[in-house]
Amino acid sequence: MHLRAIKLRGFKSFPEPIEIQLEPGVAVVVGPNGSGKSNVADAIVWAAGSLAPHELRAEKPDDVLFAGSKSRKEADHCEVELLFDNGAGDGPFDVPFVLEVEDEDGQFRQATQVDGGHVHHP
After folding, report:
1. Which of 13, 34, 85, 90 has its C-alpha lying 20 to 30 A from 65's C-alpha?
2. Per-residue pLDDT of the chain (122 residues; tens, 9 = 90+)
């Protein structure tokens, strides 16, 4: 199982929707200073359920929202979606799936089987 993609919108330095594709074995994000590498790491921590500001390099919970700039207004909400691929069948489920974790609370939403069926979880 591997993290296949990270989708961000309105989270910290990512005001517009962006999708970062990852291949199996990718363990790092590289880029120049100020490109948002640490914010990608914060997004993963946040989507995994951490709401503690100190774990997200923030002073208060609202600091995860894009704060605005001269040319863009601030975000009123943000989304982080983590897509996991279990096509190899080595994850915690017996069937191949893509796990989607999203929204402000980072709660588990659904497992979509490779054959297109859906397994819903509360």
Report:
1. 85
2. 788 889 999 999 999 999 999 888 877 888 999 999 999 999 988 888 787 889 989 998 889 999 999 999 999 888 888 887 877 777 776 555 555 544 445 444 444 444 444 444 43
What are 24's strand-pairing partners?
none
**Token pair for residue 97?**
């799936």
User: 63-86 burial, b if ≥16 CB within 10 A, otherwise e?
Assistant: ebbbeeeeeeeebeebbbbbbbbb
3-class secondary structure, 61: helix
Q: Does the pTM exceed 0.85?
A: no
